[in-house]
Specification:
The protein is about 55% helix and about 5% strand. Strand 4 and strand 5 form a beta hairpin. The longest helix has 30 residues. The chain starts with a helix and ends with a strand.
């Protein structure tokens, strides 16, 4: 969802302009999918703001924000409401989709912004409802069973169920008529409309095509890289461009190659050989031969034969045990 939000932010930054002045021409209705997309973008933005806010306290005591989490979320939502709905009669998601609220209580085709009481009631029915739903459990938790607080909680539970039922009926009406996707909009008499008349749009898919291409290429690499035997490829390249093959089998090469493991590059622990002039740590050699039955020496590309232990003396003289 965050990627979807960022893509729309990039698209909106290039083509959207500030809200146009009211036009005497009739405003076209907003598609159902656009209205639902606006709600999805609003929810994604709230989650993004909350995650950024909590990261500021990641080095503090764990659970520091838990007792006041509903209040902090409500405060951040009110801050968003102040600079979106209160200022422009549109949420952030609607602004990205070139949508804003129209006051349908005033008749006429001309655009009328939301009145101040509608904006305050909008904040109360959205932010206040979320805060009450999250805080209700702790408000009525430590009270006797026959107390007024428990009775109030039962009444609140019944009202919540009726509200959900009314929201379901309202959503079915929205699917049929295409207006007022939420119960709050229907109660307040506001309707999403386009902020300026819609005309033919020249959509550029260059950015989207580039993103799809890179995602496909990345998935192809993720599939391909585990199939590549890096050790065998490295050994083949080393054997092709290195003159080590000419030195194989000579006494001087033994003095050079037996002082370090051909895999890890450290002094060989429990040194073993696969038939070439190089030595390996026992665990390095055993783990690689188990993982790759066609294991070859990374230095000279010799195929692994019989694994034999070797003895290394301080004077670098190699003796087969």
């Amino acid at each position: 969802m965050h990627n979807h939000l960022l893509l729309l932010l990039v698209a909106g930054a290039g083509g959207d302009k500030p809200f146009a002045k009211a036009s005497p021409s009739p405003l076209s209705r907003v598609l159902r999918i656009s209205q639902l997309d606006a709600f999805e973008l609003d929810g994604a933005l709230e989650q993004l703001v909350w995650s950024q806010f909590t990261q500021c306290f990641q080095h503090f005591k764990p659970g520091l924000l838990t007792p006041v989490e509903p209040e902090l979320k409500a405060l951040l939502q009110l801050l968003l409401w102040r600079f979106t709905v209160y200022s422009n009669s549109a949420t952030v998601g609607q602004s990205l989709l070139n949508i804003r609220y129209k006051n349908t209580l005033i008749p006429g085709e001309k655009y009328r912004p939301m009145s101040r009481p509608q904006k305050f009631w909008f904040a109360l029915l959205t932010v206040g409802e979320k805060w009450l739903r999250e805080r209700s459990n702790s408000l009525f938790l430590n009270h006797p069973a026959e107390s007024n607080a428990r009775k109030a909680r039962k009444i609140l539970t019944i009202l919540t169920g009726l509200t959900k039922l009314a929201s379901l009926v309202n959503f079915l009406l929205f699917l049929q008529r295409g207006t007022c996707p939420t119960l709050t909009e229907r109660l307040l008499g506001v309707q999403p409309v386009f902020s300026r008349p819609q005309g033919p749009r020249d959509i550029n898919f260059q950015f989207l095509n580039r993103e799809l291409l890179w995602h496909g290429f990345a998935e192809f690499l993720i599939f391909l890289l585990p199939l590549v035997n890096v050790w065998k490829l490295k050994a083949s390249v080393t054997a092709l461009f290195s003159p080590l093959n000419d030195l194989r089998g000579t006494k001087g090469s033994d003095d050079t190659y037996c002082t370090e493991c051909a895999v890890c590059g450290e002094w060989p622990t429990m040194p073993h050989s696969i038939g070439c002039n190089h030595v390996f740590c026992y665990y390095c050699l055993k783990s690689h031969t188990i993982a790759d039955v066609c294991f070859t020496c990374p230095k000279c590309a010799t195929k692994a034969g019989t694994i034999e232990p070797v003895r290394i003396h301080i004077g670098t003289e190699l003796h087969q045990s």
